[in-house]
Design goal:
- The chain is α/β, with parallel strands linked by helices.
- Helix content is about 30%, strand content about 25%.
- Strands 9-16-15-17-19-14-20-21 form an eight-stranded mixed sheet, sandwiched between helices. A seven-stranded antiparallel sheet has the order 1-7-4-5-6-3-2, with no helix packed on it.
- Helix 3 links the parallel strand 15 and strand 16.
- The radius of gyration is 26 Å and the shape is elongated.
- The chain starts with a strand and ends in a 5-residue tail after the last helix.
- The model has no long low-confidence stretch (mean pLDDT about 90).
Length: about 475
């Protein structure tokens, strides 16, 4: 029979201290009865002799030193999982909040997950199509990868997250037998943002293959620490036991880290950089490293964590440590956003380190890597041309530099920029890339194999209507034998 403890020693924010505890374990879940009316869950986060420090998930409001009964459960935080959770909405602890009744769980799993044996991991291959040219073309998301989005306050990362949920798929030539689903977790979001996500998923008709976990800004801060773990537990179950390819979108990891800082401060721990606890890196790693592919299993877990950089500072501890753990980053740019370019993805500091292994012939198209390399190269030179133009004036630039300025404007407008409802195939993306490269003289395209150039390159120009069209006269001048 479980022992029930009456009363508490102290209450400090979301933490309470229980004395005289026997047989308690770190990370163990406790059930708390307040005044015989309210029931709360807590988690043991520290044990010192017979004292246990407990994080209370629902907050300590209404709790007093003498009105609380506490019972140890003997197990860590667990959640019942099932494929029926797709199409449902839950709070940060995995409890249904959509008035559709309880979930009939197929399995009860520890939210902390089981460590993946490094030997059983398979190297990520193949790609996930997002329908967004800047991502699919230049920083391709590979199945089993963790690719974060670095945003800033006021930038449209919520709209981008919703678009990723609406449009993401296994690719244009994916095997129809492969199952794909999305697990979406929002942490510390306001009510209007939560309503935006739920409404967008329902109206676009994707709700049936999306499981949504929402922790609101006014929910207890401790619940925020559990939300990504609950979401990833469901993702691992669907991927490794049901053979599905799962995309996990976590927004906003900055809220998660700040919740960790608040709880750490309540515990009186010595702070590290910017007041965050010294174990911020390991906590982020326990979340990000749950992405991957396991040998012998058809499914995969792919992660897109979204975080807002305080003051747009990419050296802040949260994006800095995230960059060490993940395999690339997608950076949103405030200047592009100010020019009404959506999505405002800053191409040059963004990259996908696994891109080269999941694109090309057999995955996307054989010219994909060449096009990406050349677009990066040309856009990098656009910055030099703009800097020179700001000094001597655009009219004084050479013809080549003026061509780079034209390329830069059209690249930002047509390739980076696209509609919030526009879902481009990988072939659309590559074709737009070739149209833009056609604005450049062939001699400037030094990152593309000659055979690929012969097959795909066509000189283009901007017509009177502002459209990119093939420049037939220039092609005939260059190849008079074809006349």
């Amino acid at each position: 029979m479980a022992i029930e403890y009456l009363g508490l020693s102290s209450i400090n924010g979301p933490l309470v201290v229980l004395e005289g505890v026997k047989g308690a374990a770190y990370d163990e879940i406790v059930e708390m009865d307040v005044n015989g009316k309210d029931k709360k869950l807590g988690r043991i986060v520290e044990i010192n002799d017979d004292k246990a420090v407990i994080q209370v998930f629902e907050g300590t409001e209404g709790m007093a030193l003498r009105n609380t009964h506490t019972r140890l459960t003997g197990h860590p935080m667990e959640i019942g999982v099932s494929a029926d959770m797709l199409g449902r909405t839950f709070n940060g602890l995995g409890q249904p909040i959509d008035d559709l009744g309880p979930i009939n769980a197929d399995k009860i799993l520890d939210v902390n997950g089981k460590p993946l044996n490094p030997v059983t991991r398979e190297y990520p291959r193949n790609y996930i199509r997002t329908g967004i040219s800047a991502i699919d073309g230049l920083m391709t998301l590979i199945r089993g990868q963790k690719l974060p989005i670095f945003s800033g306050n006021g930038l449209p990362h919520d709209e981008l997250a919703a678009q990723l949920v609406r449009q993401s798929s296994l690719g244009d030539d994916a095997n129809s037998d492969e199952k794909f689903a999305i697990v979406f977790a929002a942490m510390g979001v306001k009510h209007d943002v939560a309503d935006f996500f739920k409404r967008t998923f329902e109206e676009s008709g994707v709700s049936d293959h999306v499981a949504t976990f929402i922790n609101l800004a006014n929910d207890p801060v401790v619940e925020r620490l559990i939300t990504p773990k609950v979401a990833l537990t469901l993702a691992e179950y669907l991927a490794f036991e049901k053979g599905m390819h799962i995309l996990v979108i976590l927004t906003d990891m900055t809220s998660f880290a700040e919740a960790m800082r608040e709880v750490s401060s309540s515990k009186g721990e010595i702070p590290s950089r910017k007041g965050f606890p010294g174990y911020l890196y390991s906590e982020l790693a326990t979340i990000y490293e749950r992405a991957g592919i396991v040998s012998g299993v058809n499914g995969s877990v792919t992660q897109i964590p979204i975080l807002t950089m305080p003051n747009d500072d990419i050296t802040h501890p949260i994006p800095d440590l995230t960059g060490y753990i993940t395999e690339g980053q997608i950076v949103l740019d405030r200047n592009l956003n100010g020019q009404s370019i959506y999505p405002p993805i800053s191409v040059l500091p963004s990259l996908s380190r696994l891109m080269k292994d999941g694109i090309g012939e057999g995955f996307t198209r054989k010219d994909h890597q060449d096009v990406a390399n050349q677009l990066f190269s040309c856009y990098a030179k656009v910055g030099d041309a703009r800097a020179l133009a700001s000094v001597i004036g655009e009219d004084e630039l050479s013809e080549t530099d003026q061509t780079y300025l034209l390329f830069g404007r059209e690249f930002e407008k047509r390739f980076i920029g696209q509609g919030k409802e526009e879902n481009r195939t990988i072939f659309d993306t590559l074709d737009i890339g070739w149209q833009l490269l056609g604005l450049m003289p062939r001699a400037e395209l030094d990152r593309i194999d000659t055979k690929v150039l012969d097959q795909y390159y066509k000189k283009t120009k901007i017509n009177a209507d502002g459209d990119i069209v093939e420049d037939i006269l220039t092609d005939l001048d260059a190849n008079p034998d074809e006349e």
